[in-house]
Each structure stands twice: as C-alpha cells, then as structure tokens.
UniProtKB/TrEMBL annotation:
Pathway: Cofactor biosynthesis; riboflavin biosynthesis. This is Riboflavin deaminase. PANTHER family: 2,5-DIAMINO-6-RIBOSYLAMINO-4(3H)-PYRIMIDINONE 5'-PHOSPHATE REDUCTASE, DIHYDROFOLATE REDUCTASE FAMILY PROTEIN (AFU_ORTHOLOGUE AFUA_8G06820). Residues 13-232 form the Bacterial bifunctional deaminase-reductase C-terminal domain. It comes from the Bacteria. Keywords: NADP, Oxidoreductase. InterPro entries: DHFR-like_dom_sf (IPR024072), RibDG_C (IPR002734), Riboflavin_Biosynth_HTPR (IPR050765).
Amino acid sequence: MVTQSDAGAAAKPYVICLMQSSIDGRLHPSRYTESPDGSRKDWTAAYESAHDALGGNAWLVGRVTMAEMSKAAPHPPASPGAVERPLHVATRADSYAIALDRSGKLHFDGGTVGGDAVIVLLGPDVADSHLAELAADGVSYIVSPDHEFDFAEILETLGRDFGIAKLLLEGGGGINGSLLAAGVVDELHVLVAPALDGGAAVDGIVTYGTEGLNGKVRLSLLGAETQGHGIVALRYAVTSA
C-alpha cells in the first residue's frame, strides 16, 4: 500500500467538466427529441470519443451514475477489524474511476470499474463495516471529516496520493454545480446535441446543478466547433468570480 510519505508534493489535478446536453440543458439522451442529423447512439459515441481525446487519467461521477455500473449487493466482512481513516490507498493505477458517495451506499465486486481502479469519496458518518468492505474489495477511499466536502483538499489528495494529473468531471447537475461553486474546475466542455428534452425544470436533471453559481464562476470562450450528427462542441475556461 502506498502511504502519503511515498508520494510527491500535493498538486491539484487539472479538472475538465465534460458534459453532453440537449439545447435546453438536460442530461439524459433517453428523453431527447429525435433529429434528422443523428441519433442518441451517435451523440453518445461522440461523447465517448471526446472523453478519450481529453486524455484524463481519472473520471468523477456521483452515486447514481456509478450505481448503474456497479450493482453489487452489500457484503461486509464477517470480522472487519481496524479500518483506515481518512485515507485508504488500495492501489496506484494508470487510470481511476471516482465516485462521490456521501452515505456509503455503493458496493463493488472488485477494485475496478471498466478497467479503472475505483476510489470512493465518503462522508464522515460512513460505518467502519462499509470501509472494511471497500478495502476487502480492493477499493480505495477518502473519508471527509465534515459533511460539507472540501473539494480543493480532496483534489490535492487525489493528486498527491494517486498521481492524478487530469480529472474529467462527468457527474449530474448536483456534483457538477458543487465543484464549480468550489472554484476547482478549470475548463468546461459541453457537447450540445440537436435535441430538446422539454421536461419540467424541477425534475433535477439540469446540467450544472442547484448551487447558485451567479457571482462564483466566470466563463471565457476557448472554442466552438460544429461536429458530425448536428453536435456543437463548446469549450470554456473557468475562473472564480
């Protein structure tokens, strides 16, 4: 196991928020209107290509998204023993899948998702039995000392103890908004599909969350280009207001 003394000086990873959106700012392609320019499958493939092209060595999503990829049932060890807090490094890897799971509801059947080593970001009230389960599965974790996550500190830990240099933020509106409000996002990339969702604004699936970003974030256009299947790709630099 790698300890903090084995790693170099803390350095925050470069964070790019990469999202796909309908014209009205919604996240779920399953609800998008149809277009003669392309299909939902085409837009999903374009997003995956953008993910690969950015060359991040980690990606970060919320609990709901990760639960779609890891469907294991709870399986705490019979004799958990002592657990590490606030940091457990199961392994160092070339690439990581990171999940924000404040309450410890995610379960895994191994230490990787899609070939990427798993790291879970947890709240302070998570039980030792859950930490023991994660450790036994080869999953790394960081336990926040407070209910309000200090994302700047968490990112420094990810850089220092896991060697993460570029992180792709690919969550839902809540997690995207939280990191933007915390001032830790460096760029915003959005692929706008030629589609509408049209759902009610209160259904919680807007692209950048409910944090109230006015007065906290400034965007500067870096580039705009049209791509295949009617997609417009927008890139912005993000700075704190």
